[in-house]
Amino acid sequence: MSVAGTGHGAEPSLLPQRLTLILALLRPPGSWMLRPAVLCLAAVGLLWPRAARSPWLWAALAATAASRLVLDWPLADNHQYLLALWYVALALAASAVDPAHSLRTSARAMLAVVFTLAVLWKGVLSPDYLDGTFFRVALLSDARFQDLAIGLGGLDPAAYDANLALWDEAIRIGRPWPPGAVTETAALRILALFLTVWTLALEAALALVLLWPNGRAAARLRHPLLLVFILTTFSLTPVAGFGWLLAALGAALCGPEERRWQVLYAGAFLAVAIFEGWPWASWLRDALG
Amino acid sequence: MARSRWLPLLPAALLLLLAAHQGWRVHQQGLTPWKGGGFGMFATSDGGHTRRLQLLGVDAEGRSHALELPAPLRGAAGRARSLPSDARLRQLARRAAPLVSGPWVALRVEVWRTRFDPVSLTPRFERLRAWEQPIGRGDS
Question: How far does the CA of residue A106 sit from the closest CA of chain B (Å)?
């Protein structure tokens, strides 16, 4: 069976299911109780297409994902909740009359909720996002953004380390540093502002086009926007599990006439895996440094 | 027919319910917006990594003294930083009681969050939640 199917009249593509099963293999739970079960279920689903069409396989994976949420509470990342409910969607689709349509409906509604919530938090509920504080703080203190802060933010590595030490001590003992003690460049402030605006604008656009009725011009922007979001966000933030999950949901979003978009989602899935192991920001840092 | 039309929307409806639950926890129990399934990550600096959990011993005169958090409680402290509910802080104080020594009549657990000045980024620390647990004779 081909990965993306052959077009109209062909058996529905199993690409969303396969991407989800690969994700389960790449990011199994840490718990020794759940890990073997998830790995076995994912392997069975990948090796036997009939198993990947069975609601029982997805119901079992949903049960493991729900158990993981309970065991990790409250520390599980948000995409773990999305994954658990995505397994539920796959189980429902597998027992539906038209599995592909059921999955498409679920994927669109879930993505719409995710991006609407993200916009709600960034644009309305959070006190420190819109003024740019969040990304300034993240660039200066979050190790995941270190290469970006140095490479594009123009921060000297020694100054970055000094900032980090100041930061750690302040949080650890609860004593603020004196005004002006943190080194920040103009380029870093511009970068923080760009990331603030870009992220919110992209997420708002995605929420809008996902909520928009099918068949309208705006709906045609779903795939390009989601692919841009996956490729840009997960090249910067090392949360590959979330990127892979969005690629799987994106593949499910594709109608029978949109198989080429499915191929692009498979490519995005691969790109996220490459970004994860490829220290491009570090290379950029060295090249510019 | 109607069932098959609406059933695929069930996961999204559950996602919304989860988000409502997360919003309630954030508002009522100080859950960090980064956690809980509400998709508030990368939206605020108020995450577990910018929060501080402090264990204090309270003496008979009511004075409090900062105590080192016992190593076996670090995992529980990480969870309490993200979700400092009364139940979680109480449980932490109770577990700490037999692990600390001193003339304490009570143990207090406090969780502080950090706010950053939007211009200078100077941090300001706000006490988010606290729980004081009297120590009975059988506790220490």
Answer: 5
Nearest CA in chain B to A100: B8
Give pLDDT, residue B3: 63
Residue A110 has its nearest CB partner, among B11, B40, B78, at: B11
B123 near A CB under 8 A: yes
Token pair 């509920």: residue: A125
* DSSP sequence for A168-219: HHHHHHT-PPPTT-S---HHHHHHHHHHHHHHHHHHHHHHHHHHSPTTSGGG
Positions in chain A whose pLDDT score sits under 50: 1-9
Query: Residue B137's pLDDT band (boundaries 50, 70, 90)?
Result: low
Q: How far is A37 from chain B (nearest CA, A)?
A: 23
How far from each other are the two terminal CA atoms of chain B, in whole angstroms?
Answer: 64
Under an 8 A CB cutoff, do A128 and B118 touch?
yes
Q: What's the burial of B51, exposed, middle or buried (CB within 10 Å: 0-12/13-18/19+)?
A: buried
Residue A133: closest C-alpha in chain B: B118
pTM of the model: 0.93
